[in-house]
Design brief:
7-stranded parallel β-sheet, single chain, 12 helices, Rossmann fold, alpha/beta, about 280 residues
């Protein structure tokens, strides 16, 4: 059986939009491909996606899988059956993160490795959203196992230079991850961060930017209201969020566009926007 690709998203800094970029990429890939796509929140101390999409009591979260992870009995079928699937995007399988924050240190790399192995068998591509900090099993295991590694940062000097060098850069060297093995997503918040550009960020970090994500005021309101899915479906910015990154990741890992996508009205509008056609 063919194993699916694993893409890990981390950040140079906590709370800058890494989860939004990772989930938006997973959504776009599922939308474009029609194939089974897994999204796994591996934030052991700050899982929030369930709030962003208004799922108050997730049936499947990382802490609820602990017995199966410890016993190494989690199957691909169990993952697919128990994962949350949004209405209208039933080929996107969502596993919510650890909701028992006081137990974050109890996870072992072998447990996360078993989870990711099951995900590779279940899905054509799996997006693993991990913490910016490497002092936990989930971030280390996912980043080491990933076929592609995406680093989210902003144009704030303290993020792409200070955190990028002293935290991500140090961890990358410690675990033997080459700079060429990582890409970047540049997060643009609603407010301006200094006078630095995407080119400055790429030069300082040595990472190639594959996309840019704008955190707009409507997006921030959607997060507060649990309406992230609506933003991805209907907002002008949300409809295009992580489009380029999704395309590049699909091409890189052999995930094909679904049949008939070119005939979809929303896809024709997106292509027209990309080509500058009104």
């Amino acid at each position: 059986m063919n194993r699916g690709a694993l893409v890990a998203f981390t950040g140079t800094t906590p709370n800058i939009g890494t989860t939004i970029s990772a989930f938006s990429a997973a959504w776009r890939i599922a939308e474009y491909s029609g194939q089974p796509v897994g999204y796994f929140c591996l934030n052991l101390k700050s899982a929030k996606l369930h709030r962003y999409i208004r799922v108050e009591q997730p049936a499947l979260s990382l802490d609820r899988m602990r017995p199966e992870l410890k016993a190494a009995t989690l199957s691909p079928e169990r993952l697919k059956a128990a994962a949350f699937r949004p209405a209208g995007m039933t080929n996107l399988f969502i596993c919510f993160g650890n909701l028992l924050r006081d137990q974050a240190e109890f996870y072992e790399p072998e447990e996360i490795g078993h989870l990711l192995d099951a995900a590779r068998e279940a899905f054509s591509i799996t997006i693993a959203d991990v913490s910016a900090y490497w002092d936990n099993a989930a971030t280390i295991a996912a980043m080491l196992a990933a076929d592609s590694r995406i680093v989210a940062t902003t144009t704030a000097l303290s993020h792409f230079q200070e955190d990028g060098r002293r935290w991500f850069g140090l961890a990358r060297s410690l675990f033997g991850i080459e700079p060429g093995g990582c890409d970047a997503v540049i997060i643009s918040p609603p407010w301006r961060y200094g006078g630095f550009t995407m080119k400055d960020v790429q030069k300082e970090t040595g990472l190639r930017a594959i996309d840019r994500l704008r955190l707009t005021e409507p997006l921030m309101a959607a997060l507060d209201n649990g309406a992230l899915l609506d933003w991805l479906r209907t907002d002008d910015t949300g409809r295009k969020a992580m489009d380029e990154a999704a395309r590049q990741l699909m091409n890189r890992h052999g995930v094909r566009f679904g049949r008939g996508i070119a005939q979809q009205p929303w896809y024709r509008r997106l292509l027209a926007h990309r080509n500058g056609v009104s």
